[in-house]
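Thread: quick sanity check before group meeting

JM: Hey all, I'm pulling together slides for Thursday and realized we never actually wrote out the predicted structure for the chain we discussed last week. Dropping the sequence here so it's in one place. If anyone has concerns about the input, flag it before I start.
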Amino acid sequence: TQSVREILITAAQLRLPEGVTYQEKVERMMSIARELKIEAILDRKYGEVGDRGISGGEKRRVQIACQLITGPSVVFLDEVRAAT
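JM (edit): ok, ran it. Output follows.
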């Protein structure tokens, strides 16, 4: 039931050190949102049972953004596509 913005801010608050100010966390979140081109969906609901919310591709980018919040030196991304 959360918006994409709320999810990313929560990830920043939980994963970044206490010494990082709230404003710095918001700025980092916005920078990552710009890089992943998800700024347009920040105020949309992620989705819930009975309400689809954002698309599957957008959900993947939001989850990647959650991982990038901490500025990791390496990120492994793997996607397996089912054969049709």
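AS: nice. Helices lie at 4-15, 22-35, 56-68. The mean pLDDT is 89.
JM: adding both to the slides.
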